[in-house]
Structures are given as C-alpha cells and as structure tokens.
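Kindly inspect what follows.
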Amino acid sequence: QVQLVESGGGLVQPGGSLRLSCAASGSSFSSANMAWYRQAPGNQRELVATITTDGSASLAASVKGRFTISRDNAKNTVYLQMNSLNPEDTAVYYCNARIRIIAGFRNYWGQGTQVTVSS
C-alpha cells in the first residue's frame, strides 16, 4: 500500500518552467513503477512520462525534449521537471504508482496538482 501527494503546480507564463514533486508514503515505493499523467478540461487522461524501479524513463512524444522524469528512492519521491511550457500543457497532473501483485497489478493515484500556462 502506498499514498501519493503531488505538489509544485501553479500558474506560469509560456516558455517558463515548473518542477512537480510526488511524495510517497509506505514501504512499497522502491518496488513501484512510477508515472505522471495529465488531464485537460474536456480531454482524455494522457500518459506523460514513466520511470521504472531501476530508473529507466520514457516520455510522451508531445513532451520529449522539454520534460524530464526522475526518482529519488531514498526520499520516496518522483519528480517531473517541465521546461518550455506552452498553453497546451495546461492540465491537472497526477502521480501514479503501479505495483505487481500475484493476480496482476495494483494502481495508486495522487490527488492531482493544477498546472496553468497562460500570459
């Protein structure tokens, strides 16, 4: 069992940067694959980035070259560094943890943090 709390969202101008943090509680963080999702008003929830237990990362095509995902297992925290933000990045960003179990897998979600890119 793991609990996730996102922080770092806010209002930023186009071209600006933000760093999101996801703090996890519980003993399963180091064995969890982590991800960031986002959902804009009226849109489907979109996978933004993933990072495995050993640090292998992947990014959606729409954010490659601008975003970076990382994790610090000693701090039970995963980060999303967002640079060169544009209005299309405006969304609620959610942290996700996925843990393998006998019957398949189990997902855990944070409450989300709002990112608004506007001049």
Observations:
- The longest strand covers residues 91-101.
- Residues 33 and 53 are 5 Å apart (CA to CA).
